[in-house]
Amino acid sequence: MEYLIENRQYLEILYFISGPLTLIGVAIALIQLYLFKRDLNTKYRRESMQLTLEMFHPKSLRLSELSRKMDDAFELEEIEIPNIEVKEFLYESIQNEPWTKKFQDSIEAYNASIDYLCEVDHIAQVVLSGLADEEFAFKCQGSYFVEVVNEAKPMILAIRNSDNSEVFRDTIDLYNLWNAKVKKQKLLAEHKYRERELESLSTHTVPTLK
């Protein structure tokens, strides 16, 4: 007790500085946690981008191979791949087309289309699941993916056979996401082009009348 009384002033000083020291310790811990999470996120994104690169190259080769097989199957059964403009994923847009029933009743063409579209759907699943970096994947293959799905829309709708079907749902979801991005890119490019044109026109001076 005498010790506490004798050293009271020092204990009070320790008491007052213990609060700031605790706060400093907490701040350091929070900074370390932030840096750890940032490093973890950076590492995850790097690995995700690497996976994206490793996935897309063989997938592109595989799609080219399956596309050739699909073309051969359509030719074998004398079914023309339709040149139908389908804006929305609505079955009614192809339901009454003569091509639709012929395709649905086919064997080789129908099965080859399923093989091809399953490969497309697997790409969509990997991207939407977060295993591949979506932003990086779009830069690598966004426009190509949208083009592939645009061409395959009639087959997708004919195989789904209903607007409520969950078949190729990931393909449709990723297409809607990336198609919007592609449209935005085109609009921005057109806007920049028009801005440059306006700037070039503004540099021309009007001749003065004498």
Describe the structure.
The chain is mostly helical and 210 residues long. It has one domain (47-195). 80% of the residues lie in helices and 0% in strands. The protein contains 7 helices and no strands. It has helices at residues 2-6, 8-76, 92-95, 98-105, 108-129, 134-160, 169-202. α5 (108-129) crosses α7 and α6 crosses α7 (169-202). The termini are far apart. The model is unreliable at 39-44 (pLDDT under 50). It comes from Grimontia kaedaensis. The chain crosses the membrane at residues 13-36. It holds the Pfam family DUF4760.
- Overall helicity: over 70%
> How many individual β-strands?
0
**Tally of DSSP helical segments:** 7
Q: Strand percentage, roughly? A: under 5%
Number of domains: 1
H/E series:
HHHHHHH
Shape descriptor: globular
Q: Radius of gyration in whole Å, from Cα?
A: 31 Å
Structural class of the helices, strands and pairings?
mainly alpha
Largest sheet: none
Separation of the first and last Cα atoms: 107 Å
Average pLDDT figure: 77
Q: Residue ranges: pLDDT <50 for 5 or more in a row? A: 39-44
InterPro entries: DUF4760
Organism: Grimontia kaedaensis
Keywords: Membrane, Transmembrane, Transmembrane helix
Protein name: DUF4760 domain-containing protein
